[in-house]
Amino acid sequence: MTERIILLCLLCFLAVLVIVFRRLNRRLQAEVDERKKTEQELVASEERLRTLINAMPDIVCFKDAEGRWLEANDFDLKLFQLEGVDYRGKKDSELAAFSSFYREAFSGCEVTDELAWNKGTLSRADEVIPCPDGSYKTFDIIKVPTFDTQGNRKGLIVMGRDVTERVRVEKKREEDQRFLQTMLDSISDMIFYKDTDSTYLGCNQAYASRYIGLGKEQIIGRKDIDIAPDRNQAALYRASDLCAIEAGTSYTLEIELTLANGEKGLVEVQKTPFRNADGQVAGVIGVARDITERKRAEQELRASREAAVAASRAKSEFLANMSHEIRTPMNGVIGMAHLLGTTELSPEQEQYLENIENSANSLITLIGDILDLSRIEAGRMLLENVDFSLRRCIQELLGSQQFQINQKKISIHTEIAEDVPDLLRGDQLRTRQILLNLLGNAIKFTEHGGVTITAQLVTSEENRVLIHLAVSDTGIGMPPDLLERIFAPFEQADNSTTRRYGGSGLGLAICRRLAELMGGRIWAESGAEGGSTFHVELPFLLPEQTDRQQERNCEQADDVYQDRPLELLLAEDNLVSAQFVHKVLSRMGHQVTVVGDGRQALDCLADRSFDCILMDIQMPVMGGDAAVRIIREQENQRGGHIPIIALTAHAMDEERERLLRQGFDAHVAKPVDIALLNAALRRLL
C-alpha cells in the first residue's frame, strides 16, 4: 500500500514535471522564435541600412578605436579603387598596399583621424581628392568620434560629400565679388551701400579713404552717426535713405560734405533702393559725385553766356545805331535824288543822278543784308503771319525790277499753276525778300535771253500747303561743286563775278537762313555751260476767309483810299528827310504839316485834327516815343484814336515790335520807301 502510494506520488510528480517541461519548452521555443524573428528583422534592417548607405553618392566609412576599417559603402570603395579588396580590419596604411591611388589620395588620413579623436567632437574640413579619371574633386569630410560610457574610444564615423560644384560656385562668387570690389575701388566717385537701418554693408576705396578716412572693413556694420566726419549731417543722410527706401525709386540731392582731410566739397548724391530675392527693399546704394568743379565750370559758362548775350546785345544795339546813323543821311540822299529826278535835267545830269541812286540803293541793300544776317544769327528774326496774294507779290516784284529788265533788254516770264491758292497766310515780307534776291541775281547775271518765275503746289493738307517757287535764268552758269558754297556768307561762285557784277555775297546766305527759319528749304541747279535755277519750297497756311472775298476786300480798301486826300502831320527833325517826304506826299494830293519835334506835334494836335501822324523817333526836345505815349494817354481819357506811323532808321525787328507795343500802328524804315508808306496809309485808313 505504501509502495503504491509512493508510486502514485511519483507518477504525479512526473506528470507535473512533464507539464512544467512542456510549458518551459514552449516558452523557450517562443523565445527562440522571437530571437530568430528579431535576428531576421535585424538582418533585414542591416540590409536596408547597407542598401541605403550603398545608394548614397557620398563617402561612408566606419572604423574601430584603432583606426581599422569596419565597413564602407560602394561609393567609397569605388572612389578609392578598393572593390574586391578585403578591407575589413585593416588600417589606412595597410590598404595602401592594395591601391597606390588610395595612398596618394589619403596619405594623411590617419593624421586627421587622430585630430578628430583628440578633438572629441565632430570635425569638418574640405579636402581636394584626385579621382581615377585624372580630375580633382572637393569633398566635405566629416569625422565623428564615438566613445563608450567610460570615455574610451569606441569607433569613428567618416562621411564625405562631393561639394566640387558648390566650391566652384563659391569660388566664382568670391571672384565676382573681388572683381566687383576692384571695379568699385577703381571708380573715383564715392560709392556705398547700406541696409534698411542705414547700417553700412560696404563701400569703395574712394568713399572709405576720401570721405570717412577709415579702412573699408572698419566701416561695415556701423552707421553715419558713428563715422561721418560731420556728425551733425547724419540725420540728413538717414532721412535721404528713407526717402529712397519709402519711394522705391532713386532719390538725388546736392550737399556740401566735409571730407576726411577737412576740405569741403559739393557733391551730388544719388541713392537707389535695391531688393532681395523676395522683391522687398533691402537697402540703398549711394553714389556721391564731386561736382565742385562742374558747378564752378557751370558758373563760368553762365558768366560767359551772359557776357556773350551782352556782347550780342551790344552788337545789335551798335548795328541799330549805325543803321540809324547811316540811314538818316541816306534817306536825304535818296530823297533828294528822287526829287531831283522830277526836275528838268540834261542827259549828262540824268546819268549822274542815276549813278547816285544806284550807289545809294546798293548801300542801303548792303546795310539791310548785314542787319538781316545779324538778326538771324542772333536768333532775333521774328516772322509775321499775315494774309497775302502770292500772284500779286510776284507782279509787284516784277514791277519794281522793270527798270533793270528794260535796261538789259531781257524777257520775263511767269508760270503760276492754277491750283496755287490766290491767298496764303505767312510772312509776306520774308517771302518777298527771298524772291526779290533771287530775281535780282537772275537779272544781274543774265546778259541775253530771259528769266522765268514759276510757282507750283507741292502738297496740300487741311489748312497747310507747300509751295515750290523757282527762278530760272539763261545767264552765267556754275559748276556743280560750287552750288553749295554760294549759300555761305560773303561767298560767290567766282571772285571775278564780284568785280564784274558787284555784290557782297550775303544775299543767298540770307535767303537760305530765311527759308530754313520759315520751315522750308532752298537749293540751286546749274551747269558751267550756262543757265541756273534756284528752287525754294516754303510752307504756308490757308486763310479762313475765301480767297476771292479777301482779295476783293483789299481791292475795295485800295479804291476808297485812292479817292481821298489826307491831312497828315509829319514830325521830323532832319530837314532833308522832312523836305523829301513833304514833297512826295504833297504831289500825291495830301496836305502835310511839318514840325521839328514831339512837343511841336502835341501843340499842333491841340489846335487841329489830322487823319494820320508820321512820327520820327529820335528828335530833340521830345522824341517820338514820349510824344506817342502822351497822345495815347489823352485818348484813353477822352476817347478816339489817331493812326501813328513810326518813321525810323532803326530797322531791327525788335525795334519794330517795341514801337508797336508802345502805341504806334505801323513802322516804316528809312530811307522811306514811298510804296511802303503808301501801303501803310492804305491799310490804316
Core attributes:
685 residues; alpha+beta; five-stranded antiparallel sheet; rod-shaped
Plain-language structure description:
- The protein is an alpha+beta fold and 685 residues long.
- 50% of the residues lie in helices and 23% in strands.
- It is built from 23 helices and 22 strands.
- A five-stranded antiparallel beta sheet has the order 2-1-5-4-3.
- Strand 1 (59-64) and strand 2 (69-72) form a beta hairpin.
- Helix 11 (292-341) packs antiparallel against helix 12 (347-377).
- The longest helix has 54 residues, at 2-55.
- 24% of the residues are buried.
Overall pLDDT:
82
Helix/strand structural class: alpha+beta
Shape: rod-shaped
Beta-strand percentage range: 15-25%
Please report the number of helical segments. Answer: 23
Low-confidence segments: 493-502, 546-563
Work out the radius of gyration. Answer: 54 Å
Distance between the termini: 181 Å
What is the topology, as strand order, of the major beta sheet?
2-1-5-4-3
- Proportion in helices: 40-55%
The tally of beta strands, per DSSP, is: 22
Largest sheet: 5 strands, antiparallel
